[in-house]
Specification:
The complex is a heterodimer of chains A (274) and B (259). Chain A has helices at 57-64, 104-112, 118-131, 147-161, 177-193, 206-212, 258-273, and strands spanning 5-20, 23-37, 45-51, 72-77, 82-83, 89-92, 165-169, 198-202, 215-223, 229-234, 240-242. Chain A is an alpha/beta fold. Chain A folds into two domains: 5-88 and 162-273, Rossmann fold; 96-161, no CATH class. In chain A, strands 3, 6, 7, 8, 9, 10 and 11 form a seven-stranded mixed sheet that branches. Chain A has a four-stranded antiparallel sheet with strand order 2-1-4-5, covered by helices on one side. In chain A, helix 2 (104-112) packs across helix 3 (118-131), helix 2 (104-112) runs parallel beside helix 4 (147-161) and helix 6 (206-212) crosses helix 7 (258-273). Chain B has 259 residues and is mainly α. Chain B has a domain at 44-146 and 180-249: MetI-like fold. In chain B, helix 10 runs antiparallel to helix 11. Chain B starts with 13 loop residues before the first helix and ends in a 10-residue tail after the last helix. The chains are: A alpha/beta (274), B mainly alpha (259). Chain A binds chain B through residues 62, 65, 67, 86-91, 93, 95, 97-101, 110-111, 114-115, 141-144, 157-158, 161-162, and chain B through 152-153, 155-162, 170-171, 174-175, 177-178, 250-252, 255-256.
């Protein structure tokens, strides 16, 4: 029995390449994220995005978020699909930036105010404060928040004004086990609250990220027939993993399964090769 | 306890710290009282001179005149410098900010001549020289603050769907107002250096600079020291006021500073 189907595209990358000063950073990247439908479940999408440090993950994230125009190619978002603009895709960067001169509530209000009327923005911001367990800290400035609270606030802020798509850059980095569980919970909550919600997780934590994902991308340089590295990193077809098709998505306790362990070992080998 | 005073980054108890400051002040006063060299006036001579300056030479009135001129010049210079610094967002205006910043190497004595040709009264010459001098220093500091803006900060605003102008306003204008106030505080001292010089060039309106010049001219060293101490105390009070304003209007400002 098919437990999922795919509908319209949510994010489409076509022939993306990027050069800085003549140096090729990214080349020929074409990717699709489709709206996955599971009967009886409000199922969003989670993409795990891997690659070695310095390979160009952040550049690709900035391109997807519409912050950096690619040298060639297009990024399309939303339904119907249209070229991405800054603000369409939420991007929670590694150090969870917030406006340090605004209180937590103000930070959420300024984000919500981009899409909603003042009254709605206030209601939305209050709702997110409660959902993200931040209500007691609403009057605090970002510098007064803990790392976890700051991260939750940054995610909430981006969700308040993005079009269903959000990129999390290293969300598990430097967190203890309890905090990792908390972030996982938030990601699951986000992706199950709206079928179109899509989270791209950029991470070096293969096990945690893969367990949450239904798709994986592995960015790295390819080699030609002679074994020479080609200039610029890409995400080839063989490095796009559909975990839903592989039967490795949406399963609690997946990390204990031998197929999952095997996949993680395979990913590690692939990353080492790049 | 006491050994904390000599340990890097230690946090001595407030009582210990203030006792230490009091001891240092008393030590300096004692050193001054019993200083063997006669080149430097004694504490008693300075106090006597201070009393004379206040009662017979109008020190307080002259200080007030200089202070109001300095504050007026600082207010206008701050607005001008902020406009010039913020305009660096537009490539067209960057050369202006660059040139304004480099003009701090011009000497005031040379400038007063040109200012005198351009404006009519001595007061206006004084004010325009002070405004010019303060603006070029403020532009330098304010531009440096703006240049500390990171890609991450701007990207953060853009990902919230803010336009380039709105992102600039949120991150650079609103986000760095506290740092701009700090630049103004730091550069207020420059105005005091300039005002004492300008007041000697345009003596019609008096001022503490002229008073200082007269004490120097007649070798009244005790008077010179007394006036310098008054300027020092005024500056310290200004610093305190600016700090107070920063804490009042920008309470987030010190939150991430290592204490």
């Amino acid at each position: 029995m098919v437990d999922h189907t795919y509908k319209e595209p949510i994010l489409t990358l076509r022939d993306i390449s990027m050069q800085f000063g003549g140096e090729v950073i990214l080349r020929d990247i074409s990717l699709d994220v489709l709206d996955v439908v599971r009967p009886g479940v409000n199922q969003g999408q989670v993409v795990g995005f891997y690659g070695r440090s310095g390979v160009g993950k952040s550049v690709l994230c900035r391109i997807i978020a519409g912050l950096l125009p690619p040298s060639t190619g297009t990024v399309m978002v939303a339904n119907p699909q249209r070229p991405v603009c800054p603000g369409d895709v939420g991007f929670v960067q590694q150090r969870y930036p917030l406006f340090n001169h605004r209180t937590l509530l103000d930070n959420l209000l300024v984000a919500a105010g981009r899409k909603h009327s003042p009254a709605d923005a206030k209601a939305k911001a209050q709702d997110f404060l409660i959902r993200f367990d931040l209500a007691p800290h609403r009057r605090k400035y970002p510098a007064m928040l803990s790392g976890g609270q700051r991260q939750r606030a940054a995610i909430a802020q981006q969700l308040l004004c993005s079009e269903h798509l959000i990129i999390l850059d290293e969300p598990f980095s430097g967190l203890d086990i309890a905090m990792i569980d908390e972030v996982k919970k938030i990601i699951i909550e986000v992706t199950t609250s709206d079928e179109l919600n899509t989270v791209v997780i950029v991470s070096h934590d293969l096990a945690t990220t893969t367990a949450l994902s239904d798709t994986l991308w592995l960015l790295g340089p390819e080699r030609d027939a002679a074994g020479q590295c080609l200039a610029g990193a890409t995400i080839s077809q063989k490095h796009q993993y559909n975990l839903a098709e592989m039967g490795l998505a949406w399963q609690p306790g997946i990390q204990a399964k031998p197929e999952f362990v095997q996949l993680i070992e395979h990913l590690k080998d692939e990353i080492r090769k790049t | 306890m006491l050994k904390d005073l000599f340990v890097p980054n230690a946090k001595p108890r407030p009582s210990v710290f203030f006792t230490m400051v009091a001891c240092q002040v008393v030590f300096l006063l004692l050193l001054w009282l019993f200083y063997p060299l006669q080149l430097f006036p004694t504490l008693g001579e300075v106090l006597a001179s201070f009393k004379d300056l206040v009662t017979t030479q109008g020190l307080i009135q002259e200080l007030w005149a200089s202070l109001t001129t300095a504050l007026g010049a600082l207010a206008i210079a701050t607005v001008l410098a902020l406009v010039i610094a913020y305009l660096t967002a537009l490539p067209f205006f960057r050369p202006i900010a660059y040139a304004a910043s480099k003009m701090r190497y011009l000497t005031l004595t040379g400038l007063t001549f040109f200012m005198a040709l351009m404006v009519s009264s001595g007061h206006q010459v004084k004010l325009s020289v002070l405004i010019f001098g303060a603006t070029v220093y403020l532009v330098t500091g304010m531009t440096s603050v703006i240049l500390t803006t990171t890609q991450e900060e701007m990207d953060h605003a853009r990902t919230l769907g803010m336009s380039e102008w709105r992102s600039f306003y949120e991150v650079v204008v609103l986000g760095k107002l506290d740092e701009m106030l700090e630049v103004v505080r730091q550069n207020f001292a420059i105005i005091w250096t300039m005002i004492t010089l300008v007041e000697t060039l345009y003596q019609s309106e008096g001022g503490i600079g002229l008073l200082l010049y007269k004490q120097n001219r007649y070798l009244h060293l005790a008077g010179v020291v007394a006036i310098q101490l008054v300027i020092l105390a005024t500056g310290a009070l200004q610093d305190y006021l600016f700090e107070f304003l920063r804490r009042m209007f920008f309470p987030y400002s010190d939150l991430s500073v290592a204490k």
